[in-house]
Amino acid sequence: MSGKKKVALAACSGMSPYGLVARVTSADTVAETDDTISICMGATSADREGFRNLIKKYPIIAISGCDGDCTQKILEQKGVKPLKNINVMEELDKTDLNPTDVCRLDETGEECVKYLKKKIKKK
Predict the structure, then answer these.
(1) What is the pLDDT tens value at each position of the chain, 123 positions in all?
(2) DSSP readout, 36-94?
(3) Edge-to-edge strand order for the sheet containing 84-87?
(4) Which residues pair with 63 in a beta bridge?
(5) How would you classify residue 79: left for phi > 0, otherwise alpha for psi between -120 and 50, otherwise beta?
(6) Exposed, middle or buried: residue 103 (CB in 10 Å: 0-12, 13-18, 19+)?
(7) pTM for this model (two decimals)
(8) Distance of CA 72 to the CA centre of its chain
(9) Among candidates 9, 18, 19, which has minimal Cα distance to 44?
């Protein structure tokens, strides 16, 4: 573990290509760094006891898939204001990257993940 305080990543769990990019970006970032953990948005939405405490323990970066910003809204409904909200669709609109599949990453989807991981690691 590095000397930094851990940050939790809460990724979109929606069924869009952008939601898939959010989830893979979160999972990859957690696997590649010592100072991040992931939050399960399904368990958070379902108000599972362990997650009620977890979302209050660490600062959270919400990774929303689309302009609905559901991840951020769910956290706020649970009384948690995310440190930052990264909207995958908005971020990728700044590039020529466009994910195309809701359940499998193709080459373009992997490029989307690489781009977003860099943004998250800067935060």
Answers:
(1) 344 689 999 999 999 999 999 999 999 999 999 999 999 999 999 999 889 889 999 999 999 999 999 999 999 999 999 999 999 999 999 999 999 999 888 999 999 999 999 988 887
(2) EEEE-HHHHHTT-HHHHHHHHHS-EEEEESSTT-HHHHHHHHTT---SEEEEHHHHHHT
(3) 36-39, 7-11, 60-64, 84-87
(4) 11, 86
(5) left
(6) exposed
(7) 0.87
(8) 10
(9) 9
Contact 30, 53 (CB under 8 A): no
What is the residue whose two structure tokens read 């466009």? 98
H-run or E-run covering 11: strand 7-11
